[in-house]
Write a structure and sequence with these properties.
Elements (H helix, E strand, L loop, with lengths): L2 E5 L2 E6 L2 E10 L1 H14 L6 E12 L1 H16 L3 E5 L3 H9 L7 E3 L10
Parallel strand pairs: 3-4, 4-5, 5-6
Antiparallel strand pairs: 1-2, 2-3
C-alpha cells in the first residue's frame, strides 16, 4: 500500500487497485477552496475506483458537497467510479437533504474493488 500525505486535511493511499482520498476536519468553503486544486493533482491519470474516506469529516456544508460532486464528475468523465466511505451522520443527512444520496455509492467499510460493482 503506497501512502502520501498531500495536506493536513487530505491523505492519499491505495488499497489494491482502489485510490483512497481520506479527508478530515470541517469541509466548509475555506477548506473546499484549499483542497480543490490539491485533490485534482492527487488523482491518478486513470482513476478506476476512487474512494473518498469521510469518516474523519466532522462537518460538511454545501461547499464541501459541491467539491465532492465536482470530484465525482471528474472521475466519471475519465471512466472511473467514486465511492464514499463511512460518512458521519451529519454528512449523510446533507446528502439526503440535497438530495444526492442516490447519486453516490456509500459504503461503511473498504471492500475489495471487485465487490463494489
Amino acid at each position: 500500500m503506497a501512502e502520501r500525505t498531500v495536506d493536513t486535511a487530505l491523505h492519499t493511499y491505495t488499497v489494491g487497485d482502489q485510490f483512497v482520498l481520506a479527508l478530515r476536519g470541517e469541509l466548509d468553503l475555506a477548506l473546499a477552496l484549499t483542497l480543490q486544486p490539491v485533490i485534482g493533482e492527487a488523482l491518478p491519470p486513470r482513476p478506476g475506483t476512487i474512494v473518498v474516506n469521510l469518516c474523519q469529516v466532522s462537518f460538511m456544508d454545501c461547499s464541501g458537497l459541491a467539491l465532492i460532486c465536482r470530484l465525482r464528475e471528474r472521475v466519471v468523465d475519465r471512466g472511473g467510479r467514486l465511492v464514499l466511505l463511512s460518512p458521519r451522520p451529519v454528512v449523510r443527512r446533507l446528502l439526503r437533504l440535497a438530495p444526492l444520496d442516490e447519486r453516490f455509492v456509500v459504503i461503511d467499510r473498504l471492500l475489495p474493488a471487485r465487490t463494489l460493482n
